[in-house]
Amino acid sequence: MLLEVKNLSIYYYTLAGVVKGAENVTFNIDRGEWVTFVGESGSGKSTVAHAIMNIVPSPGKIVSGEVIFEGKDLLKIGKEELRKIRGKDISMIFQDPMTSLDPLRKVGDQMVEVMTVHGVPEDEARERAKELLEKVNLPPDRLDYYPHQLSGGQRQRISIAMAMAFNPKLLIADEPTTALDVIVQDSIMDLIDALKAEGTSIYFVTHDISLAAERSDKIAVMYAGKLVEFGTVEQIVENPLHPYTKALIEAVPDLWKESEVRAIPGYPPDLRSPPPGCRFHPRCPVFKERSTLKDLCDAVEPEMIEYEKGHFVACHLYGGAGK
Ligand code: SF4
Ligand code: MG
């Protein structure tokens, strides 16, 4: 196992109250596996991604849990050791590539620096930077460009090239295609696929479950800071268990067998005071219909159970008292 995340909780201590951004999130990513995290914005997918790198922005704090990467808990090791892993064994790309690019410096210098900080001699790093550009289908003269001279898609290619510098074991990609048009989107997805083909595991974040279904091996569904379902793409798309997952799939016309498109009624809850019991209960159609669940869903938090091999769900309809 490459990555084991156990009971990870992240809170944001804002002036308006404590926002429970992610709570008790547990999952694994195997070597060479692509796992996509889906859910509405604010569901905790990016929060967990940041926590894996131990870069949760202030006022956020990791309040509990473990992030075991190749047997080491990244939340316990020293800053120096973590710096060695970041950008080398684990790389991250963001929705806005400018997050990782300095607007005032040439792209080539920045690519070189990513490598020299990890001990690669400068001339070797220059050579490698050229090769990396070729890998992401950009001409070598782009090394002399400043980020603002490139299009959004080209900038994202540069940030992928930087992330590829050391053939990372894990790539965390937080909505890297959301700001791009469809054709460019596809080419970025191809690059991530190519990285995967070389053995890199992928933690991919999107709010678009159809994008998730296309390329990944597994899907993790998050709702209001909780992981509510986890399984292979086939398990999730063909046999979704959680009412929220079902609603997500039904909202996508292509994935849905019939013709009607339905949006999910209601809004995600305020994470300063999430609903008691199952956080989805105020929006859950099953809860509204099934009287047997009435005292359970709005009072007892459902635990994650393994419904079938590798297919996990947290909902009272399965395995527990609600069966
Ligand atoms: Fe719906 Fe209850 Fe399942 Fe939550 S636990 S998703 S409210 S049926
Ligand atoms: Mg996000």
UniProtKB/TrEMBL annotation:
<keyword id="KW-0997">Cell inner membrane</keyword>
<dbReference type="InterPro" id="IPR003593">
    <property type="entry name" value="AAA+_ATPase"/>
</dbReference>
<keyword id="KW-0813">Transport</keyword>
<dbReference type="Pfam" id="PF08352">
    <property type="entry name" value="oligo_HPY"/>
</dbReference>
<keyword id="KW-0067">ATP-binding</keyword>
<dbReference type="GO" id="GO:0005886">
    <property type="term" value="C:plasma membrane"/>
</dbReference>
<keyword id="KW-1003">Cell membrane</keyword>
<dbReference type="InterPro" id="IPR013563">
    <property type="entry name" value="Oligopep_ABC_C"/>
</dbReference>
<keyword id="KW-0547">Nucleotide-binding</keyword>
<protein>
    <submittedName>
        <fullName>Dipeptide/oligopeptide/nickel ABC transporter ATP-binding protein</fullName>
    </submittedName>
</protein>
<dbReference type="InterPro" id="IPR017871">
    <property type="entry name" value="ABC_transporter-like_CS"/>
</dbReference>
<dbReference type="GO" id="GO:0016887">
    <property type="term" value="F:ATP hydrolysis activity"/>
</dbReference>
<dbReference type="InterPro" id="IPR003439">
    <property type="entry name" value="ABC_transporter-like_ATP-bd"/>
</dbReference>
<dbReference type="InterPro" id="IPR027417">
    <property type="entry name" value="P-loop_NTPase"/>
</dbReference>
<keyword id="KW-0472">Membrane</keyword>
<keyword id="KW-1278">Translocase</keyword>
<dbReference type="Pfam" id="PF00005">
    <property type="entry name" value="ABC_tran"/>
</dbReference>
<feature type="domain" description="ABC transporter">
    <location>
        <begin position="5"/>
        <end position="249"/>
    </location>
</feature>
<dbReference type="GO" id="GO:0015833">
    <property type="term" value="P:peptide transport"/>
</dbReference>
<dbReference type="InterPro" id="IPR050388">
    <property type="entry name" value="ABC_Ni/Peptide_Import"/>
</dbReference>
<dbReference type="GO" id="GO:0005524">
    <property type="term" value="F:ATP binding"/>
</dbReference>
